[in-house]
Amino acid sequence: MFIEIGGALIDSDRIAAVSPDLHAVGIVRVLLTNGKTVCIKAYMSDVEDALTDAGLITSDAISLSATAILALMDLRDLGYNYIAKDKTGAVYAFIDTPVRCGAYWQPAEESSERAYRVYSDSFDWLPSEPAIDAVADINNLLSTKETE
Asked: Residue 123, exposed/middle/buried by CB under 10 A (0-12, 13-18, 19+)?
């Protein structure tokens, strides 16, 4: 299925990740499954709406166990903001939003950070398929749980 992002039609099966450009307002970077990146004039909120309309991302609440919540809190306390599971099932924590590189997640090109491997079975709920929502924002996950 093709979806429209900022006037460009993109095959949804070829999208690996989408992130705002850190150097230009109103530009998003679309990482394709072949490893190439396409910059498109669009706002991230419009991209999220298009991906939600296409059924590629959802806003369904994730049910987290107490162990998973504690593990996320520990990662956040260490300064990590994102977690992602690669196709091998390995879970990594990142300070900045990671990008998919084939079957794996890695820090963004502009970042000098290293991925932190998380050895825990607390993240079985985290998807590993190449979808936009395969990266979880730790602060967003915890903000809903800490207010309950």
From this structure: buried
Tell me if 84 sits within 8 A of 135, measured CB to CB. Answer: yes
- How remote is the C-alpha of 3 from its chain's centroid? 19
Look up residue 71 and give its two tokens. Answer: 């593990």
Dist CA 107 CA 120 (whole Å): 20
CA–CA distance, 139 with 143 (Å, rounded to integer): 6
* Alpha carbon distance 10, 100 (integer Å): 17
Residue type for 7, please? G
Q: Over the stretch 59-108, which tens digit does the pLDDT of each residue have? A: 555 667 778 788 888 888 888 888 888 777 788 888 888 877 777 778 87
Within 13 Å, how many C-alpha atoms sit on residue 43's CB side? Answer: 3
How many angstroms separate the Cα of 28 from the Cα of each of 15, 23, 56, 60, 109?
13, 10, 17, 24, 14
Q: Return the residue matching tokens 């079985």.
A: 124
Tell me how crowded residue 80 is: count the other CB atoms within 10 A of its CB: 20
